[in-house]
């Protein structure tokens, strides 16, 4: 049986849910909570201590800059409705539905010392830490990677060599639904001899 600290970590992992934008309320997230969540991200494993992650955080009226950027990036994308003014406006509206947006920027040290995939996995581990810390603080979250969120135009505007999407955070307007996973026996092979 896990001790109390281990059980808290295990419960937080099981409680994390992806929550849609439309299921968030508009309440702002306190700065000290955001700082703690972002700090958790920086404690991800990273080969050679490269820490290839960078985050740009959009809150309050700063989200309007991101909303405009997403609209321009979407218009420049290969999405089938990229030229639609309604689709571009939808990008703006979507941004304002979450109180916090955090970019997931990949900054690989140059010259690279390790394979690209290792740096990408480090960023993914940082993102997972952010998602789990957000859950521990009672925040709802989602890692999103639509065309505007991984666009080279968005990356350039943020000064990021590459983007792996954005995490949005907020407080859930309703309790997220329970989830399940396949039994461990379907996913694990034990070798003991």
UniProtKB/TrEMBL annotation:
<dbReference type="InterPro" id="IPR000415">
    <property type="entry name" value="Nitroreductase-like"/>
</dbReference>
<keyword id="KW-0520">NAD</keyword>
<protein>
    <recommendedName>
        <fullName>Putative NAD(P)H nitroreductase</fullName>
        <ecNumber>1.-.-.-</ecNumber>
    </recommendedName>
</protein>
<keyword id="KW-0288">FMN</keyword>
<feature type="domain" description="Nitroreductase">
    <location>
        <begin position="13"/>
        <end position="171"/>
    </location>
</feature>
<dbReference type="InterPro" id="IPR052530">
    <property type="entry name" value="NAD(P)H_nitroreductase"/>
</dbReference>
<keyword id="KW-0560">Oxidoreductase</keyword>
<dbReference type="InterPro" id="IPR029479">
    <property type="entry name" value="Nitroreductase"/>
</dbReference>
<keyword id="KW-0285">Flavoprotein</keyword>
<comment type="similarity">
    <text>Belongs to the nitroreductase family.</text>
</comment>
<dbReference type="InterPro" id="IPR026021">
    <property type="entry name" value="YdjA-like"/>
</dbReference>
<dbReference type="Pfam" id="PF00881">
    <property type="entry name" value="Nitroreductase"/>
</dbReference>
<keyword id="KW-0521">NADP</keyword>
């Amino acid at each position: 049986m896990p001790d109390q600290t281990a059980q808290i970590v295990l419960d937080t992992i099981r409680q994390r849910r992806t929550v849609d934008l439309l299921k968030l309320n508009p309440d702002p997230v306190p700065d000290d909570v955001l700082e703690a969540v972002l700090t958790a991200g920086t404690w991800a494993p990273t080969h050679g201590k490269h820490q290839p992650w960078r985050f740009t955080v959009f809150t309050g009226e700063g989200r309007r800059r991101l909303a405009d950027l997403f609209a321009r990036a979407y218009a420049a994308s290969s999405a089938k409705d990229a030229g639609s003014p309604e689709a571009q406006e939808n990008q703006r509206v979507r941004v304002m539905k979450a109180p916090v947006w955090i970019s997931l920027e990949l900054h690989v040290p140059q010259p690279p010392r390790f394979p690209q995939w290792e740096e990408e996995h480090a960023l993914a581990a940082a993102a997972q830490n952010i998602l789990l810390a957000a859950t521990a603080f009672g925040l709802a979250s989602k890692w999103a990677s639509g065309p505007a969120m991984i666009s080279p135009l968005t990356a350039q505007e943020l000064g990021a060599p590459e983007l792996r999407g954005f995490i949005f955070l907020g407080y859930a307007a309703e309790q997220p639904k329970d989830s399940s996973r396949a039994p461990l026996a379907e996913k694990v092979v034990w070798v003991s001899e």
